[in-house]
# Entry
Amino acid sequence: MTEIRLPLAKPTFDDREVEAVRRVLASGWVVQGPEVAAFENAIAKMHGARHCIAVSSGTAALHLCYLALGLGPGDALFIPSFAWPSAANMALVIGARPVLVDVLPDTYNMDPADLRRRIEQCIEQNWARPRVVVPVHEFGLAADMDSILDIAGEFGLKVIEDAACALGATYKDKPVGTLGCMGIFSFHPRKAITTGEGGAIVTNDDALAEACRMWRNHGQVMRGDHRDFEQAGFNYRMTELQAAVGRVQLEKFPAILARRRQIVTQYLVQLKDCPVIHLPAANPEHTWQTFMIVLNENIDQTVVAKALAREGIGAGPGSVASHCQEVYGRTLGYQPTHLPVSERLAHHGLALPLYSELTDEQVRLCAGTLRSAVKKLASTT
# Structure
């Protein structure tokens, strides 16, 4: 098997992260202390939020947001299908109904027109009570929040932004995460910065922030000097080790983001005239967690990925279409044809290597190898 020399993603670590971990280990305080508080303050400041609640993962962050809003059985959440299924999965976990929405073919984000159709269908069919819209800022590009907020307001729905891929992104110069009532981020290793695993919630709502903190920490609250358990909560805390690494990563983030944008610009130039490849929408506010191209329908995504792998280049699906997954077919009756754009992106989208340590020469190698592979395949179909 050929060694993958250029993986899809690679964290940007050096001795500064090692020293941060050493400092925490030497302190003896390794669970949710001053490092977590400092990390939360930095994330809140970056996004202009009053509150940040650091947690163990982006999925945990979504779970806490749902609980803080009191969502549960009988409630409907409107979630794009083409996205990592965390938002939909957590809706099922709390007993709510995820209503999956199709996406736009160029931005890969929630289609506002389809959102309206799904809300109206949910009401007409009496599936559940519409409560929340969860737009995903896919791959670091903000969704069409003006349209989504207008539709949500028309139907009296709350908006939770799934900004797992979109740390530092903006929408019309406004930081994502605070355009709705809450927003979440992920610090998984495929993200621009990482804490290994980890996530965060941002909000300007004091009551929601307090509820998230309570659910995060076993459901406990302090009443004066007395500890009480208001709910049967979870242990979704972030460790001091993770937060210390995260603080170093945040210091590097401006340089990391600048380099990722340079790499994407090179990809866009080098692939622009390839007839069987459709490029993503370019936007100066995009933070590019992933660079995904879309292949023509007669080009097999898996075959292209294997061709790149033989040359030591990592490639694979950008994301999944939740409505095509077994659990959503079994529980809610979804079929692949129900959301055609999401299905196409899942089956024909191909993510290419993107991390700040990629050199210009390596980017040219990735683009050139891809062009050669798809040209060969196109000539045989």
Q: What stands out?
A: The chain has two domains: 15-101+108-246, 253-379. The chain has a mean pLDDT of 97. The first strand starts at residue 51 and ends at 55.
